[in-house]
Amino acid sequence: MGLRVPVGEDAERWVTRVGCRRVLLIVHNVTSATRLLDVLPLFNSDVRVQMFATCTGSSPFLAGVPELLARAGLPVLPWDQAQDTAFDLAVAASYGGELASIRGKLAILSHGTGYNKRLATGHRTSRTPAPAPVFGMAPDWLLEDGRPLASATVLSHPEQLERLRSSCPEAVPTAVLAGDPC
Fold first, then answer.
1. What would the pLDDT profile of 84-133 be if each residue is shown by its tens digit?
2. Are strands 49-55 and 76-77 parallel, antiparallel or unpaired?
3. Which sign does the torsion angle of CA 1, 69, 138, 118 carry?
4. How far apart, in whole angstroms, are the C-alpha atoms of residue 67 and residue 5?
């Protein structure tokens, strides 16, 4: 069962503050949750913003996620309800889950040290193999049906913008060079 307040079928009847912007933190695992909680203070002091969290359930590393979100004091929506609710902004720190199903603008932050993890891609036939794709910088993650998945791809360093240009030029218009949120 989903939340009835501050979102839900008859939520307007119960809310005490109307006209708030809705911001959803999309959690994939504890690592992505800690990065999202790092940016929570950017929103917490603004009474015009109602924060929510949800967990995609797509990671095998879910231990500790419910406890972490409970300590943050955020209303936690079941994933199904989050997909059915309109948000002004959704923020994720991972590409896990069905992010394209979220209704609202999507911003993706890197988690951990940024876009530095290369993925194994199997056997290569060339004697001079191309470097393995960097997690979070390959078209497989950045594009949905040939278009950028996110409205904003938040980068922490100019080098990441250059890497994005070479790996997925279609996503460059979404790039926001914002530095490290910590």
1. 999 999 999 988 889 999 999 999 998 654 555 555 554 444 455 556 56
2. parallel
3. negative
4. 21
Q: How far apart are CA 42 and CA 94, in angstroms?
A: 19
Q: Give the domain ranges of the chain.
A: 18-115+134-177
Q: Report the predicted TM-score, pTM, of the whole model to 2 decimal places.
A: 0.84
CA-to-CA distance for 182 and 154, rounded, in angstroms? Answer: 13
Does domain 18-115+134-177 fall into CATH 3.40.50.2000?
Answer: yes
Q: Give the amino acid at 74.
A: L
Q: What are the contacts of 43-51 at 24+ separation with CB within 8 A?
A: 47/17, 47/20, 48/19, 48/20, 48/21, 49/20, 49/21, 49/22, 49/23, 50/6, 50/17, 50/20, 50/21, 50/22, 50/23, 51/23, 51/24, 51/25, 51/75
Mean confidence (pLDDT) of the chain: 84
Nearest to 109 by CA among 29, 177, 30: 177
Q: Is residue 135 a contact partner of residue 111, using CB atoms and an 8 Å limit?
A: no
In a 10 Å sphere around its CB, with 0-12 CB exposed, 13-18 middle and 19+ buried, how is residue 54 labelled? buried
